[in-house]
Design goal:
- Helix 4 runs antiparallel to helix 5.
- By secondary structure, this protein is mainly alpha-helical.
Length: 323
């Protein structure tokens, strides 16, 4: 009985049991019966259906599901649009993605490709949920999944191109930015030269979109600067002869601070930019813990030489906005 107050609890118990030991899952025929019953329950559900029932039924459905990921993703988007908090159901998505990756990358890559394509066409009501799915996928690309690495590069381009579609999903955008920030240091092999160079204009566009949308932008400003800082920290070699990217981001961020310091950007954003500039100026000692004074002096001398490429343009911009 769908109206039974104990039904959500029973479904949740089954989900936890099957999550704990996959060997306890019912065989194919019984599993299909359960999945059909869950779908029937949700189709017949009134608009004011109990949220606990929706959450529990989706989690159980996801732990038993074994078809294309895209169908489950669509199910997730509909439930999210109904107002269910992502934190209550995203575990179901994470578990099935991890389970599929244990077999091969084909289903994962196909779902990843379709998710990337959806970034350009997603209806507004599904944007938050789509970003959550995208965030799950980019964090699960492995080093030996060559197609997945290529898809990741494509996804950065699509996310950058269509960021204005997600201006009403600020929380989801921040989660993606925070994930990219971590991946830059934990999975350095994921970022090709193309990806690194694309992240700079993406970060700038991100700020322009949200500032134009007239929302508080300090968190977006700081999150994008953490991305560029991690590029400096872990991928500085990819910026050889690309000093114009660093010059441009510093100059544009200075201009944004100057224009929006009274409303959407505060002192915390200025401090974030100052830290980024410090990171640019400091030698990168990552990966070697046996530096002697000569090695350090050599790095500092090289960095000072490189800074001559940055300083003139940045100083001219600073003088211009200060007058």
């Amino acid at each position: 009985d769908m109206k039974s107050p104990s039904l959500p609890w029973l479904l949740r118990c089954l989900y936890l049991i099957f999550s704990f030991d996959s060997k306890l899952k019912p065989k194919s025929a019984s599993r299909n019966q359960i999945l059909s019953k869950i779908m029937e329950m949700q189709r017949e559900a009134p608009s004011g259906v109990d949220q606990d029932l929706l959450i529990s039924s989706f989690l159980l459905y996801s732990i038993l599901y074994d078809d294309k990921l895209e169908y489950l993703f669509a199910h997730y988007l509909v439930i999210r649009e109904a107002g269910i908090d992502a934190e209550l159901i995203i575990a179901g998505i994470e578990q099935i993605v991890d389970r599929y990756l244990e077999d091969n990358y084909d289903k994962f890559n196909f779902a990843f490709s379709n998710t990337i394509s959806s970034l350009a066409t997603c209806p507004v009501g599904f944007c938050a949920g789509l970003l959550e799915l995208y965030n799950v996928l980019i964090g699960r690309v492995s080093k030996d999944n060559k197609i997945g690495i290529h898809l990741f590069a494509m996804s950065i381009s699509e996310f950058y191109t269509n960021i204005d579609r997600f201006k009403e999903s600020k929380e989801g955008v921040l989660k993606v930015l925070n994930n990219l920030q971590l991946l830059l240091t934990s999975k350095t092999w994921l970022f090709s030269q193309y990806c690194i160079e694309l992240l700079f204009p993406m970060c700038l566009k991100m700020n322009l979109v949200f500032l134009e949308f007239h929302v508080d932008c300090n968190d977006i400003f700081s999150a994008t600067l953490k991305i560029t800082s991690n590029i400096i920290f872990a991928h500085r070699i990819k910026l050889s002869n690309r000093h114009h990217l660093v010059d441009a981001i510093i100059c544009e961020y200075l201009a944004l601070l100057s224009r929006h310091q009274e409303d959407q950007l505060a002192a915390s954003s200025a401090r974030s930019l100052a830290r980024f500039i410090i990171n640019v100026c400091e030698p990168n000692l990552m990966g070697n813990h046996s530096h002697n004074k000569n090695e350090l002096s050599s790095k500092v001398a090289t960095l000072k030489k490189n800074l001559r490429k940055y300083v003139p343009v940045v100083m001219v911009k600073y003088i211009h906005i200060s007058t």
